[in-house]
Amino acid sequence: MNLREIAAKHNFWPDGIIFDLGVSSWHYEGSKRGFSFQKDEELDMRYGDWGTSAKEIVNTYTINELSNIFRKYGEDKNHRHIAKDIVQYRKSKKIQTTKELAEIIL
Questions:
Q1: DSSP for the chain?
Q2: For residue 9, what are the CA distances in angstroms to 19, 22, 72, 86?
Q3: Taking the model in full, what pTM does it have?
Q4: How far apart are the two ends of the chain, measured CA to CA in Å?
Q5: pLDDT by residue (tens digit) across 25-39?
Q6: Residue 27 or residue 60, greater confidence
Q7: Average of pLDDT values for 44-58?
């Protein structure tokens, strides 16, 4: 059933509809996409199979690009230091999991 059918069935014609398409607990607890550092999972952090994975970002982006992400989206005051540590670590080993990334950040 689509929204038009539901509205007609209940004789209800809204002026607008708001959808909450945010993150649910399933994304953190059951998706196995690395949304949480509480589990050791592959670094993905995508909702689907499109876009750039977190693994690709932490293993290929420059210090400046990583630093900007952590500053802008994480509002982390140590953004530059974290970015440098990630780039230094990946010189010897590719970052694969949330646990690895968490340990680097700590």
A1: --HHHHHHHTT---S---------HHHHHTS-S---TTS--BS---SSSSS--HHHHHHHS-HHHHHHHHHHTT--TTHHHHHHHHHHHHTTS---BHHHHHHHH-
A2: 20, 28, 46, 56
A3: 0.71
A4: 49
A5: 766 676 677 777 777
A6: 60
A7: 89
